[in-house]
Structures are given as structure tokens and as C-alpha cells.
Amino acid sequence: MTWIHTQLQLKPRPRGFHLVTDEILAQLPELKPLRVGLLHLFIQHTSASLTLNENADPTVREDFEGHFNRMVPENPSRYRHTDEGPDDMPAHIKSSLLDSALSIPIHNGRLALGTWQGIYLCEHRNDGGSRRLIATIHGEKT
Amino acid sequence: MTWIHTQLQLKPRPRGFHLVTDEILAQLPELKPLRVGLLHLFIQHTSASLTLNENADPTVREDFEGHFNRMVPENPSRYRHTDEGPDDMPAHIKSSLLDSALSIPIHNGRLALGTWQGIYLCEHRNDGGSRRLIATIHGEKT
Amino acid sequence: MTWIHTQLQLKPRPRGFHLVTDEILAQLPELKPLRVGLLHLFIQHTSASLTLNENADPTVREDFEGHFNRMVPENPSRYRHTDEGPDDMPAHIKSSLLDSALSIPIHNGRLALGTWQGIYLCEHRNDGGSRRLIATIHGEKT
Q1: Residue B39 class from Cβ within 10 Å (0-12 exposed, 13-18 middle, 19+ buried)?
Q2: Residues 6 or more apart in contact with residue C42 via CB below 8 angstroms
Q3: Burial tier of C63 (Cβ tally within 10 Å: 0-12, 13-18, 19+)
Q4: Is the minimum CB–CB distance between B62 and chain C shorter than 8 Å?
Q5: Model-level pTM?
Q6: Across-strand partners of B3?
Q7: Residues C69-84: pLDDT tens digits?
Q8: Which of B54, B66, B103 has its CB closest to that of C46?
Q9: Chains adjacent to B (≥3 CB pairs closer than 8 angstroms)
């Protein structure tokens, strides 16, 4: 049995949906020896989130940003929590609609993602800065 | 400690929300010997998803389909990613609003679901075909 | 390796979003000896849910309630499943949009939450009563 915690830091990104599979995998050489297991990714913030979605066409990520802005509009008259700017309360709501964590199977040292699945960092603030993740790797070695 | 990966194949279903608890359990005899553990179900697609909800009244699943179609409308003028048809981009968004994975406690060889909880396959494409899941079972035997 | 299941009971709360981190931690002394691990919280209901979000300003929770009521309106003409009252079908939808489970890393005997992260019980029924959770703790002792 292997249990590992690692802290990952994602570089700052503008508001929007960003494909970060490669940036995350580059920081997780510990996956390699595992025959079977799970990778748990956890973002320690309440205004950015993680999801899995289409990894090929960049317009998918643009359409995500457009949809979430329509579904959770920046309309200060709707909210009481407005001190940190009009993008703040919508960012909190978007991050709970998506998720603060992902669990992905590990199979023979690699993530068992489908062909079209990639990891998105969903940055909901205009200026969110670098984001911190805790990666928990657990499983069985070969 | 037990760690098992199994690949499950769900039969093709029309667009909509479908109760699949029994179809999944029939493929997981490995749950039986576990005293305590977790079942992780992971769908390897970006246009179908998994969720837990009411397992008795079929109109609940119809109301889910109606609500998600209103909340994520098939309006091509809203999206740039439209090459694969008007149901494609909404399917990506719905699958991230719901989830690509579920973790359910295993207790004395059975899933510790509440009385009214069942596993839904949420098929967001008009013609999604058979869907592939990875089941990860880990826990302790009696 | 440690594997523990505990059943938690949350006291009844009115409809809305409620910070329950302390109520949950008070029932989980078993976290303390773990050096590394994961806490899995699972709600055994289909009309209440769990999420992580801002733990300081109570108006954030009020804005959540307002947003979810707009996004999933209590409009009986939209739904077929209406026998249990106008708040029932929206409660099912809200609970799948948020989530029935949370996984949080355990590090040196404590939850590795970010500074601003707290656990919300999202009570979507007008009169939901006490809610039952299964906590699964697994990890490695020091």
C-alpha cells in the first residue's frame, strides 16, 4: 500500500476554463509505480474548481466560460456578499456547481482517463493568482 | 486490503436519466467479501455522467431531463463548438454540472445507499451508444 | 492502514445552506491518529447535499440559497413529480447539482482544508429533519 500527499501549485491563469492535465502530471512522478489506485486532487480555494471534460477543441472551454457566465450572472443586485467585487459571489457559486475535488483511477502507472478526458482548472475570479492543490495518491504497487 | 479495478460496460440508452443500480451491481460480485470500503465509479466520457438520486418514481428522471434541457439549452447561436451537432456542447456542460465519478461507501458487502438513493446514468447525447465505466473497489475484508 | 465507518447524524435545520464543519469534526475523533488519508462524507438522502465553500461571511450562504432558488424554481407546472410538495422536485435537482459526497484529504490528524473552506450542509427541503451521513476514514497512522 502506498499513501502519498503532495502539494501542487498551478501557475496563475486568467478567468476561464484551462486544460491542466500535463501541468499536473509533470508534478506527479509518484503515479508511475502504482498498478492500481486512485488519484485524489483537491483545490484549497472557494472561487476556483476542478472538472473533467473535452481535451481537444479549445472552443469547448470558451463555451464553458460563456455558459457559466449566463447561468451565474454578475449582477450585484442579486447578491449580498459583494465586498470583494462583482466576480466574487458568482465565483463561489460556480465552484460549488463544478467541484473542489476529482478522483481518477490509476491503472498501471497512468491515469485511466477516457480518450477525450482532460483535467480543467476552472478559474472563476478575474485575478485569482496561483492556485494550490493537494494530490493524494493511494494504491498498490506492482 | 483489497484493490480491484473492473471495466463495466453499460448498454446503450436513449438521451435521458436512467436508473442503473442493478445493472452495475450485477457486474460487481467483488463487493461481497468487503466489511468496509469504498466503490469508486468513473465514466470515461465527456458527454454522459453519473449521479445519485431518487430510485422509485420514474417521473423524477423525466423532470431531470426537462430541467437540464431548460438550464443548458440547445441553442447553437450560444456555442462555438457545434460541429458534432446541437446536442454535443450542452452534453459537455451537463456532464460537468453533474459528475463523471461517484464514491459510495461499502458496508458488510453492500453499498451503503440511503433507502431512496439509486445510481443514475445521465445520457446527454441523442445517440451516445454504450458507455464505459471503471469501477475501483478498495477496502478491508471481514 | 485504517478503515473506519461512522454514522453521523446532523441536527435538523431549516431550508438553506449551513456551515457544519464543527458539528462534523466533533463526531470524528478518529481523524486524530492519521498521518495521511482521506475523509469521505456521504449523505444518505436525495433532497439535501454537501459542498465546500466560504466559511466566514454568512451572507455567502444566503446568496447560495437565493441563486439556487432562481436556477431551480419551484414552479409545479414544470414538473410531473409534485406529490410531495413544490419544494420536493427542486430539492432532488439541487442535490445532484451540488453533491451527495465529499472527499477531503487528512494531513497530520486534521482536514487539509484551505483557509476559507468549510463544509456546507445544503438543506433543500422546507422541513427536511435530521440528516444522516456515513463518514469513511481511511489512511495511514503515524
Answers
A1: buried
A2: B103, B104, B105, B112, C100, C101, C133, C134, C135, C136
A3: buried
A4: yes
A5: 0.98
A6: B138
A7: 999 999 989 999 999 9
A8: B54
A9: A, C
